[in-house]
Amino acid sequence: MTDTSATSAGGTTTRTVLIIGATSGIGRAIAHEWASNGYTVILAGRDRDELISDAADIHIRHGVQASTLGFDALKYEDHGPFFHAATNQTSNGLDTIIVCHGYLPAQTDAETDFEIARRTIDVNYTSAISILNLAAAYFLARGRGTICGVSSVAGDRGRQSNFIYGSAKAALSTYLAGLRHRLARHGVKVVNVKPGFVDTGMTWGLPGLFLVASPTQVAHAIWRACAKGKSVAYVPGFWRFIMLIIRSVPDFLFMRTKL
Amino acid sequence: MNIPRSKLLSLTGWGNYPRESSPSYRPEKSHELLQVVRSAPEPSLISRGFGRSYGDAALNGADGGTRGGGVILHTRLCRMIAFDSSTGLLEAEAGVSLADILTTFVPRGWFLPVTPGTKFVTLGGAVAADVHGKNHHRDGSFSEFVTAIQLLSATGNVLNCSREENADIFRATIGGLGLTGAILRVTMRLLPVQSAHIKVDYERAADLDAALSLFGTGDDRYHYSVAWIDCLASGSSLGRSVLIRGNHAPIDELPLKLRNAPLEFRAPRTKHVPVYMPSWILNARSVKLFNSLFYRKHHTTSKIINYDKFFYPLDRLSHWNRMYGRRGFVQYQALFPHATARAGLIELLERLSQSRRASFLAVLKTMGKASDGLISFPYPGQTLALDLPNTGPDLLTFLDELDGIVIKHGGRVYLAKDSRTSPSAVSTMYPALADFKRIKARLDPANRFSSSLARRLKFTEHA
How far apart are CA B248 and CA B222, in angstroms? Predict the structure, then answer.
């Protein structure tokens, strides 16, 4: 579904961003952030009706082109055709891809039900690798562009409250570090964003949250991280210090916490 | 699929009174909202936007033995769906704020056809309260510009409502305080404007009769008209006011420096009231002082100001409701038909001035045509809005007395601002309430949609 009625900034070449997981709380805010900076946006996600509403909203508010593409993280075999379709939606090619889909189960469910544990790993890690491999090849061939992967502060140290989700996000961070190394000499930026608690449907009603940031605030921080080509960006920035402390607490003390 | 998680929130209306807790849902996708309505374990639900109704219209907590219900926050379902720049028709989700509409459309030459005194309300809330603005005398209420509503009913069906389709449900939904279902989308007509500025005339009126006569003779020249009224003035200056009236400034009336970019203006800095002020700050003496200064400051004059300054002066002081302290305040808005307006207003103002209660903000306005909404507030007459600090049970007794005055003169109070009136008073004030209840009972026999206001005023008890 492509919106062809959209206008683009006259004269200048519009840049295009592909957002995987665009109907998530963070994904939506990211789409608005990039659109407000004049980007054409391609919204990819599972829920087609939501995508269509989001694309209409972005087009009306920001006056940029917004199109949609169905994307199911767990249908790996469809990722190739999907990515091909995404690159064909724009005449100038993609400039940025942001991978921000995710799945946060209750930790206890993931411990007792392996299907939930596997789903957590597959959505947050395996499917991200599947799509990032395609993106890496594409941007390598282009010799420029930005790949942004959204992992989580949960990956910085295994904690009893969410270590299955956290381990998948840690794996994603490690992958992104390697990919950055791989593409460094080919003009492609690889940015790993690690959000703290964000006020979205994923965290709404969860106990024990603190310093919760708004999606808009986080999206803006992600924009700046990508613009500056940062390697690893904690968003908001103060999470770098919080996680530094959490990583530094020695085990004998850490075991006494309920983090 | 699972029902989205709820979060227990302690909520109030804008008056900070009363306060109630409810499990609150904040769906981010349309199907999540549907799931909440279909399967949330709470016995009832009420939609809530920015919580700018003053009383208990968007509360659904436990009260006196009955089990409370849940709240649906619409603030994450806030997408603009379609806009037709040839007609000005905008279709948007209920959670879109009027502020967002202004930010998006004023630079393109469109304005809200009706706006209340704050831009921080949602579209759904504006419809559910059928809000009015300074142009009511001329244009009527918000619903006049609403052409269609998409309503999620208690059965989980999506109903398209307009003056042509499901017309009875449309009439029950505009001004219906969210009790007919969850408003999903609203289609409304925007107003074309040449500039973001308003040409305002200020005019002093020495007493109530002077104010009413100025309204009567001059309002037809103004798109917008309202009077600030000094409620502490008594005797020969009872009802002394400053009339504030204006029109959208066309480009050729703008000062030269604004003509190049007539739709732009420098956004104002917002100030905050960071904490609840002690409740004695707004007392009879301080308000009297403010009122005298305000009255003296506003000579009869005319100037051009941007729309934000004209319509939303209080939005520049965020959380201004905290000025009234933790106990909050009650906004009392009464409306009298023209025939009894003068007598009713005089009795109300005399009683108020006698009581030495200080209303920091008091607004007088002529209302135009009645809305199509069955329990919408407006009809032709004069309306007076007062903000009264919550001083406890004595305030409630006093307001019951005011209800008596209002009913004696055939008037009514505005339900979106109410937190205390009685079922019998409301059934006298709103003759079409019986029709509203009938439609509500047919559409939602089990009262899936209910609120603290609905239970207090017995809207959920079928005749």
Answer: 9
